[in-house]
Amino acid sequence: xxxxxxxxxxxxxxxxxxxxxxxxxxxxxxxxxxxxxxxxxxxxxxxxxxxxxxxxxxxxxxxxxxxxxxxxxxxxxxxxxxxxxxxxxxxxxxxxxxxxxxxxxxxxxxxxxxxxxxxxxxxxxxxxxxxxxxxx
Length: 136
Fold this sequence. Notes:
Shape: elongated
Number of domains: 1
Strand content: under 5%
Order of helices and strands: HHHHHH
Distance between the termini: 19 Å
Number of helices: 6
Oligomer: single chain
Radius of gyration: 16 Å
């Protein structure tokens, strides 16, 4: 297969797999740590309204979703890519980092969570995904 096409497919696969892991863990997080009474976790306005009532336990699911989604996406991308495996894995990290930044802008989450999420859940997890893929 043409290396350019293979690298493009690797990026697409990483984004899709990472997104599936992310949303699955977000959904699972709502079942493990119940949202505040009256909140609809599928409604963004409800999420914004109830965010001040969240405890630190409510942020475990989102953090794990962001970190493990990025890890899975970077791993898949590094495994599939024809070359430049680390660069493509880190590209997945940047992709999800952009999503994390946009969530911080849209939702008033605590500063401790924002810092932890942005510093740990994206680029370090993308690097770890590359390491786990054992390529290059």
